[in-house]
Amino acid sequence: MVGWYKAENTAVDDTGNSNGTLVDGTFAAGMVGQAFSFDGVDDYVTAPAVAAQDPTTAGSLDAWVNLNQTPATAGHHMVIISKGAFGADFDIEVETDNRVHFYVAGGVRVASTTVLTTGVWYHVAGTWDSTGLRIYVNGTLDTTNPTSGVTRPQSNLPLRIGDCNAGGLDSRCTTTRPLNGLIDEAQVFDRRLSDSEVAAAFNAGSSGTCPLSAGLEADVAPRSQGDGFLLSNDVTIIRQLVVGTATPDPNTNEFQRADSAPRATSGDGLLTSADTIQARRYVAGLDPTQPAGGPMQRALPSFDVSRQASGDPAAIEKPRKLSVIASNASPGNRVTVSIEMTGRGDELAASFTLAFDPAKLSNPHVELGPDVSPGTVLTVNSGSAAKGMLCILLDSNEPVNRSTWTPKLVTITFDVAQTAHAGRTKMSFSDTLAHRSLSDAEGDLLPAIYENGVVDIFPGAPFQDESGINGVIRWPFL
Hints:
By secondary structure, the chain is mainly β. The chain contains six helices and 29 strands. Helix 3 runs antiparallel to helix 5 (273-284).
């Protein structure tokens, strides 16, 4: 973000790049706090020209707008945000067809199919990069212009909100285009916003958006803004976010920064073990740091994590697999369940939620298995154990499997309720809190099979033999 004019009784730019001046306009109740109020005659905001707000290869403009009068009725276009000049367009406006138009370069444009009416708040956004132009209304992609490779020279003109640079500054703007209505949360970006980022800005509604591209990928400590450095404490916080002992701050872009894997796309909308590995790579200097980007909120998995990718011969011969190993138990005693992994030797991290019946099993105690690499770090969230959910994350700087056989990743010991009825109780993997995931050394997710298991509860009474070893008398005898 290179410009953010929140209109909270001032035309200050919250990014600090170019503070504006409100000319003749006033403030009124807005979508988020206050808004700029323009009379459609001679009101606007102007901010001095700065290179940071004059992108040449990619950019975005967005704002909330509420019209008192439509352009069709007024008989002229109404500018929302304008930074352009003839041949160097970078503007978003409502034209006399009452549709939103977004211009870049020498008149390359895209127009919405949505028709704006008076007295309604709309969130509008125009985005552009080498793949073309896009326009959004209320968080949804409305129309695209696939013209590729569009670039523009810098206009070196002031930024205007509510009107264009008339008076000879912009030869395309031969007459003023004043907006009659309200504009709130006007924002300027030097990159194309993603679909999810635009949707997040709309969905934030009256709560207001956060600074969308602030900070660095994986920089989350100290919470929740980070400090501009990639250090071990960032890895610690991301571990907590993956297992759910901490949740992303909705008032900042903490989720966006924590979701750093895959690196090529600045995240995938999921907080998984892969994000822990990518954070470790940034801290160790294996990858250069990069500005925060990518999804602003949780998305659905891009592939079915419970299955192997089709067409992979290695997946058929030796599929990666995490399994709950079945155990026997009796009421009033304890039972230990192990999670085992069949891997290929390239797995550096794993995460999952384990679901169980809290009426039968409680007080889980988790330990690393005897077969994992010495440098493996275990992070556990047992805060939802009373609801039958346990979240586990393992990550290491080397493959977690140091053995040639199927290793025990973790062992989990539960108390078995005295009132637990005999029979089988399920233990299953889920994505409820921590997503099922395996990650390699590059922070890429690895598809895997996740096999659920059971604990067989048998009736019986605990006993202690002469050697002091606890046991149980079971029926039928095994």
